[in-house]
Amino acid sequence: MIQASELILNPDGSVYHLNLRPEHIAHDIIFVGDQNRVEKITQFFDSIEYSTQKREFKTQTGIYKGKRITVMSTGIGPDNIDIVLNELDALVNIDLKTRRPKKELTSLNIIRIGTSGSLQADIPVDSFVMSKFGLGLDNMLRSYLIDKVSHVAIEDAFIMHTNWDIRKGKPYAITCSEKLEKIIESDRIFKGITATAGGFYGPQGRILRLNIQDEELNNKMDNFDFNGERITNLEMETAAIYGLSALLGHNALSLNAIIANRASGTFSEDPYKAVDELIAYTLNKLAGS
């Protein structure tokens, strides 16, 4: 039995941080970072059956073209993803009354919709990027036993190419769900490796008043190539989502609207339009329309 200190429940039986009970979520779930983006997606729903928010975790579940979908904000960073994925999994794979794992696994379909900056000059602003791999630079997933789901060859190639300082922890590489990749892919979408940083400033090469460990890391990442797979973009959630989903038996895919190109120094003239187009595209793919 899982102890109360390990799986914390609220007085109403909901999981502690997400404030959700099993009946509140669909098995198709869209992640966004910003809580204000939840309703940018659910405004297209035919109906909304449930809505709640605790801290930065806002959730709405409803129907879109006959498909039951949950939209949830995760906040920023791999540490939040650790909370969200573990509590979502508990909702479907642990009996919250007996506190025991269920015998039959329930797999969720999780798609992240986010915004990001491209690291490659040929991936323009307003385009879509699908993360074929998540490359975690954050070290969060190393708290788990990940050898069965990680791609050691990519990790080792990246460490060698960048002369990575292992004192920052060993990067990890996880692939996306092939099932969701087939559902979502199209000729419009670029694919590649999405690097996931554990912070926004120093971990992504930004310098304000503090010097950073490797000022050339972004340039090294720009020209990293593993069997034709390049690092397309840099953000703060994808690798953690892929890693925990793979370990827990869920399907995960990350999509980003590219609103900036750090290689060319350009920024989208209408970033909201790019995000809205990605939302509509993803919803219709999920609904099979």
UniProtKB/TrEMBL annotation:
InterPro entries tied to this protein: Nucleoside_phosphorylase_d, Nucleoside_phosphorylase_sf
Domain Nucleoside phosphorylase, chain residue ranges per copy: 29-266
Pfam families (UniProt xref): PNP_UDP_1
Gene3D superfamilies the UniProt entry points to: Nucleoside phosphorylase domain (3.40.50.1580)
Catalytic reactions of this protein: uridine + phosphate = alpha-D-ribose 1-phosphate + uracil
PANTHER family: FI09636P-RELATED, URIDINE PHOSPHORYLASE
Protein name per the record: Uridine phosphorylase
Organism: Flavobacterium limi
